């Protein structure tokens, strides 16, 4: 499991590429534009600098990590001869299905195909691949270089052997893998998103303000971030789309996104990445 391709150089993709490269894997980082790749590499370099400054790694480790990453702007060249692909593209089902069809055409039949999806069905993604037993969810948490969990999602057809390989690989990255089954939101977001949605509902109902809600959860429950700050950090569009997947998947109104969240997404307030969400980042 030496050569890895990571599709998507955004927040999750660059963190995943960083982590594999830091642990000695050769990584092909793939995105559709040179600008996205440059931005992703810039973020990796900055996060490595942060680790050097904290004396977690040396300057030589930083250089070795960066040297392990090669960038590609198309899938066929990026997935040639890799043992594992980790897809971390935008959270959109049609896009993911399109990418997995391309992976099916361009990868060797032995290549393991993983998705970092936070809620889209692994079984659905695997349905467009000729041998779906090699498709698995490898759901990293943000910020990837720091967070210990990898949620490993078994699709309906995922084999025991592939699951074992991916669990062991995650441990080699100094992460803690947890195996879960493929139902909407898996485990992480099935529990996290209703909490975030309820925090937004609490704000929407005028029970308390942003600062008050986050402070209650930070100081009262020892969460590192309050739920509204965490929603901004994850991206309000991402939170909205995960809630929609669960609402649709379970047909249960308890997962319906709060109207305030829907309005903020429509208004382009996506959180940290757009400069404004529940907090102002400009
Ligand atoms: N890369 C590398 N290191 C990073 C980093 C990054 N992007 N971001 C932070 N760090 C490191 C810092 O260097 C620091 O290291 P030390 O402990 O060695 O000093 C450590 O992480 C803490 O960082 P800071 O001191 O700057 O800030 P902090 O104490 O406020 O912690 C945080 C930042 C780790 C993000 C913390 O606020 C936190 O844990 N927040 C919650 C994160 C969370 O819940 N993530 C899951 C989101 S859900 C998800 O990702 C999945 C989904 O499907 C939606």
Tell me what the structure shows.
It is a single chain. This protein is α/β, with parallel strands linked by helices. It has two domains: about 5-180, NAD(P)-binding Rossmann-like Domain (Rossmann fold); about 190-275, N-(1-d-carboxylethyl)-l-norvaline Dehydrogenase, domain 2 (Orthogonal Bundle), CATH 1.10.1040. It is built from twelve helices and eight strands. It has an eight-stranded mixed beta sheet with strand order 3-2-1-4-5-6-7-8, sandwiched between helices. Strand 6 (about 135-140) and strand 7 (about 150-155) form a beta hairpin. The longest helix is centred in the N-terminal third of the chain and has 20 residues, at about 35-55. The protein is globular, with a radius of gyration of 19 Å. The model has no long low-confidence stretch (mean pLDDT about 95). Bound molecules: acetoacetyl-coenzyme A. Acetoacetyl-coenzyme A binds next to helix 2, helix 8 and helix 10. It comes from Salegentibacter chungangensis. One of its GO terms (molecular function) is (3S)-3-hydroxyacyl-CoA dehydrogenase (NAD+) activity. Its EC number is 1.1.1.35. This is 3-hydroxyacyl-CoA dehydrogenase family protein. InterPro entries: 3-OHacyl-CoA_DH, 3-OHacyl-CoA_DH_CS, 3-OHacyl-CoA_DH_NAD-bd, 3HC_DH_C, 6-PGluconate_DH-like_C_sf, 6PGD_dom2, NAD(P)-bd_dom_sf.
